[in-house]
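--- STAGE predict ---
source: upstream dedup step, 1 unique chain passed
mode: sequence only
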Amino acid sequence: MDTTKNETEYSKQLLEQYKLYVQMADNISQRRQQANQFYISLLSALIAILAVVIDKDSAELADMRLIILLISVMGIIISTIWNININSYRQLNTGKFKVIHEMEKDLPYPCYDKEWEFLGGGQNSKKYFQLTRVERWIPIIFSLPYWLLFLYSVAQLLG
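--- STAGE serialize ---
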């Protein structure tokens, strides 16, 4: 009888821990989305600053070239950090869902494990196209104007 009580208590604790852990995984996804919005805002603000700098008639040409170079380097660095951030969130989510799948082995129905199985384990893009595959291209696309500005400003400073 004592074993049944212990098993019941274990099941209750496991279920509570599982619910908390699933909520934490959802929170990670929300933080990931907020981080993406932050980087988009930051890179957009740099473009806005560049537009203001270029609009100034009184700025020295050499100063403007240096400012363009600085802004382009900042944009490239921010885009690179953003890409690292996306990869880190992907790794964190992968780990969290491995733990969730492990916990589900002791639960009556492994809903996340079954969902992943139905989606082909992320291997078949017709069943499920992983958002991270698209998401990883966004910082690269956002960095392209900064790379062009960088090349332009270096050419102007050297030429």
